[in-house]
Amino acid sequence: MDFFIQQIASGLTSGAIYACVALGLVMIYVSTDHINFAQGEMAMFATYLAWAMINAGVPYWIAFGLTIAVAFFGGLFIQRVILKPLEHAPVLALVVCFIALLSIFNAIAGMIWSYTIKQFPSPFPSHDLFGNGLVSVQQLGVVGVTLVMLGLLTVFFRFTTLGLAMRAAAQNPASARLMGVRVAWMLALGWGLAASIGAIAGMLVAPIVFLDPNMMNGILVYGFASALVGGIGNPMGAVAGGFIVGVLENLVGSYVIGNELKLSFALVVVVGVLLLKPAGLFGRVIVRRV
Amino acid sequence: MVALLEAKALSAWHGPIRGLYELDLTVEQGGVTALLGANGAGKTTTLRALCNMVRRAGTTTFQGVDISRRSTEDIVRMGVAHVPEGRGTFVALTVEENLRLALHTRRDKAAAMRDRDLVFGYFPILQERLHQQAGTLSGGEQQMLAIGRALMLAPKLMLLDEPSFGLAPLIVREIFRILRQINEHEHVSMLIVEQNAALALDLADTVYLLETGKVVTSGPSALIQNDEALRKSYLGY
Ligand SMILES: Nc1ncnc2c1ncn2[C@@H]1O[C@H](COP(=O)(O)OP(=O)(O)OP(=O)(O)O)[C@@H](O)[C@H]1O
Ligand SMILES: [Mg+2]
Fold first, then answer.
1. Among A124, A139, A202, B177, fewest CB within 10 Å belongs to which?
2. Which chain A positions have a beta carbon within 8 Å of B139's beta carbon?
3. What is the CA radius of gyration of chain A?
4. Please, which residues have CB within 8 angstroms of residue A287's CB and are 6 or more apart in sequence?
5. CATH code, B1-79+156-237
6. Residue A84 has what DSSP assignment?
């Protein structure tokens, strides 16, 4: 039983990280209809920035906040400078562009910081929550940060007019323009937010998997899986999908198929869900009368 | 009378295809101007060209300011509310969110809340449907929502693209009655595109007749209403 609870706890922890990655993907998908393959590498790069700041003596939480801010402007910059000129380019050109971004970030990180593995500090102590070896403070912290972030995003999109304008611009750009919404900037804002969320994911996962330029490779696949399972157009769904994938992956890995096949399992889950519910488990089908 | 909106030699293209040929058009301050013509005459194209939603040439001025090169968003923010063909409903947002969206561009939040009450005054049904997904509204309700959204922008000029499209005669009459009230009480000038010529002529004081991207004739609506030859050949009644 203890082992089972430990597996659930660690499943929720990795699930929280998948949820962050998935949230970043969803953010860009809903605002621009694109799947950003560079999401993982952007997160990795931001994490290196945090690492450099912490190494230079900046206190953890200040480095955390600064990294989120820098990532935000980085995302904004990528959209305005690289993607905006490709506005009318075919989808394949964009896919190539995302893959190029992915390898550029990877190469630059390797060039600056080398490919050797680095330790990344965690703001949370690693000791047990109740002293019974089941759940650690670190695990609770990771899940907590993710839930807080989801809460903030929900409030932003539900209750602020800027969040509303972003949703409107994503749904019906032409009509949003006629309401005075600067649609091009809303897309850039979506990229900025996605980059910030990615940075959080990177900083949460780095203490667990250690920091290296390839650290997000596997995690990005799980992030995709989570986003698709939850419904790629829906932030809440992405988070729920993250937790579901994280827990299932851990349980199936420990009890059924072993750790080597865990990644394939994630893909099986995706295919299964999409076959049964193409919009994802929590994807909302929008009613439209004509 | 003073010109609120003035277009000179307005031309527009859809890709390589030309849709408008050097059109001159004026909307008077406080007035209602109707743009009539058969399907494909270029009415929608004219409204889009005025808001810079298509490639266009020629000069447009609004309140004396040259808006020929302004972005659509800026033109809207200057006080031109465009109720588009097909109503432009944000189907996945609620009615309340469709209306609240206007607050994104408005600084005067208190006045915006008063405008919301104004919208509910004209269209009580929207208040009843407030938290319903806008995509589930009936066609007539969506048209009311589209006009409501435009009103929320506190516009000086409304561009209306076939507000009667696909609606039952009773609802159409109701909407036109409200449009007249909005024009009179809120001092919103209007440029209205219609297939329903009789109704539009009734509401408008000035009329432009459009054929294949050119103005055939224009003038006070009373004159056109009484010109039987013109009515028969262009308006079909
Ligand atoms: N997106 C487009 N691409 C190519 N041609 C277009 C496009 N939109 C309009 N056109 C053409 O431009 C001309 C004018 O179209 P427009 O939509 O302005 O007509 P309209 O007067 O509004 O007609 P309706 O009463 O049917 O709405 C038509 O010949 C139409 O085929
Ligand atoms: Mg039309």
1. B177
2. 289
3. 19
4. B91, B133, B135, B136
5. 3.40.50.300
6. G
**What type of residue is B166?**
G
Length of chain A: 290
Protein residue closest via CA to atom 6 of ligand 1? B14
Mean pLDDT of B17-28: 92
**d(Cα B104, Cα A163) in Å, to the nearest integer?**
9
Contact criterion met (CB < 8 Å) for B149 and A180: no
pLDDT in tens, B168-182: 999 999 999 999 999
What is the SS3 assignment for B155? Answer: coil
* Ligand 1 center to A186 CA (angstroms): 29
Cβ atoms of B224 and B230 within 8 Å: the answer is: yes
Phi-psi region at B17: left, alpha or beta (left = phi > 0; alpha = psi -120 to 50): beta
181-210 of A, contacting B, C-beta below 8 A: 181-183
Shortest distance between the Cα of B91 and any Cα of chain A, in A, equals 6
Structure tokens at B108: 């005067």
Q: What is the CA radius of gyration of chain B?
A: 17
Between A231 and A98, whose confidence is greater? A98
pLDDT in tens, A120-155: 888 888 777 777 777 788 888 888 998 998 899 889
Mean pLDDT value across chain B:
92
Lowest mean pLDDT among A132-146, A239-253, B126-140: A132-146
Q: What is the pLDDT of residues A85-125, one digit of tens each?
A: 888 888 888 889 999 999 999 999 999 998 888 888 888 88
Handedness of CA A107, A111, A112, A117 (dihedral sign): positive
The alpha carbon of B191 and the centre of ligand 2 are apart by a number of angstroms equal to 13
Backbone angles phi, psi at B220, to 5 degrees: -60, 140
| Nearest neighbour of B88 by CB, restricted to A162, A172, A180 | A172
B71, B85, B101, best to mutate vs chain A, most A CBs in 10 Å: B101
Find the B39 Cα to ligand 1 centroid distance in Å: 8
Q: Which residue has the higher pLDDT, B128 or B225?
A: B128
- Closest CB from A165, A287, A288 relative to B101: A165
Using the atom order of ligand 1, give the atom closest to the CA of residue B195. 25
| Per-domain boundaries in chain B | 1-79+156-237, 89-154
Task: Mark yes or no for CB contact B76/A171 under 8 Å.
Answer: no
Q: Is the pLDDT of residue A290 over 60?
A: no
Residue nearest to atom 18 of ligand 1 (CA): B42
**CB under 6 Å to ligand 1: residues?**
B 14-15, 17, 19, 37, 39-45, 195
Residue-wise pLDDT tens digits, B60-74: 999 999 999 999 999
Our CA dihedral for A242, A248, A252, A254, rounded to 10 degrees, sits at: 80
Phi-psi region of B212 (alpha: psi -120 to 50; beta: other; left: phi over 0): left
Helix, coil or strand: residue A270:
helix
What would be the CATH architecture of the domain defined by A2-276? Orthogonal Bundle (1.10)
